[in-house]
Amino acid sequence: MAELSSKRDTEASQTAAATRVPVRLAYFISHPIQYQVPLIRRIAQEPDIAMTVYYFSDISTRGYHDKGFGVTVQWDIPLLDGYKYEFLPTFRDRGSLSFADPIVYGIYSRLRRGRFQAVWLHGYNTLNCLHVLFAARLLGIPVLIRTDSSLSDRIRSKTTLMAKNLFFSIIGNSIHGVLSVGQANTDYWKHHLGADIPVFPMPYAVDNQLFRAKALEATPDREALRQELNLEPGRPVILFASKLQGRKRCIDLVEAYIRLSPSPGIDPYAYLLIVGDGEERTNVENRIRESGLDSIRMLGFRNQSELPRFFDLCDLFVLPSIHEPYGLVVNEVMNAARPIVVSDQVGCQADLVQNGVNGFVYPALHVEVLAEKLAFLLTNEPLRKSMGENSLRLIQKFSFEQDVLGLRQALAFTVPGFRV
């Protein structure tokens, strides 16, 4: 009944919104991102928000070499359907994404011709982002900014921090509000832009309904996947699914897993599945060989549509990263109702992982503590089940509907006459 009532409220709100003159919103972002596009499509359904997405690059739509994964990636979900967009013309495009590549033009003219009333900018640390800020300021258009930055997402020298503070003192007056993806992100913006900067919650989210449905679809074929991976029936499964980069610290998970062995060279009762690829793959594989264990599976890169099968298969998920801005894969796994173990340097942990409720947060790089958490969960199946149910309950609060509400609140603050 609650879901029906919520649906009716949403429909009533959309009906009322349809009678209003739509606010004209320009959204600038580097390239079509598989995590962002579903939300963009959802916002496009709002009748009183006329949003045009401007991309700086089309790199993700033509297939490209992802340095993090170490493979050529062609995403298997539609990236350009269901919303209005334009790829901006370029002065230079070397086929990468960096501070000065690509360099686009035409931002000012599009903002002026489109008579946009607000700008939503994803990121701030490229020439193109600075171009957007400058153009919007000249035209008197308020800017809302969104990133996943946190104060612990990387190590910064004193010189870098001084330069960063100077940078924000220069551009701060061009930012009228921030769209916060989580608590760590809010702390970041209040630190750099001051405690009075308007903050509107717009949490990083995934298509919860889709990922939940895909996990449920995978359940009947779970045993077939176990056989495909040569996993013995009944033995629990630990899952890592991310890029094999140094900062993801997959090697820490391998070391913790090795500590679960009853004696050297004897496999733990659980399996460890590693989904992903990247620069650290050789180091991880070498350590696995040294261990003499046969219960670790290196499964390589898997496209996004394949991942729910592994989320359903696993008994618990681990992301041991350091300097992790957020970690959206955690959202995905929680929709499969699984317990989560993350380090305290994973940005989403303050929002998504409640110690002892739906998983554990452990101090980054502390392999022994990670091993203790794994051992505790692996020997307590009822606890894993209850934690997984709590994950599913908690993730419902981090949805596209919450994002739309946060955006509407920000627009109501910046655009006269717009109503939440």
Question: Could you walk me through the main structural features you see in this protein, from its secondary elements to its overall organization?
Answer:
The protein is an alpha/beta fold. The chain folds into 2 domains: 2-205 and 399-414, Glycogen Phosphorylase B (Rossmann fold, 3-Layer(aba) Sandwich); 208-395, 3-Layer(aba) Sandwich (Rossmann fold), CATH 3.40.50.2000. The protein has helices at residues 2-18, 37-43, 107-113, 127-139, 158-171, 183-193, 208-218, 222-228, 250-258, 281-291, 307-313, 329-334, 349-352, 367-378, 381-395, 400-414; strands spanning 23-29, 49-55, 64-66, 71-73, 84-87, 90-92, 103-104, 118-122, 143-146, 177-180, 199-201, 237-241, 271-275, 296-300, 316-319, 340-343, 359-362. The protein has a 7-stranded parallel beta sheet with strand order 5-2-1-8-9-10-11, with helices on both faces. A hairpin with a 4-residue loop joins β3 (64-66) and β4 (71-73). The mean pLDDT is 92.
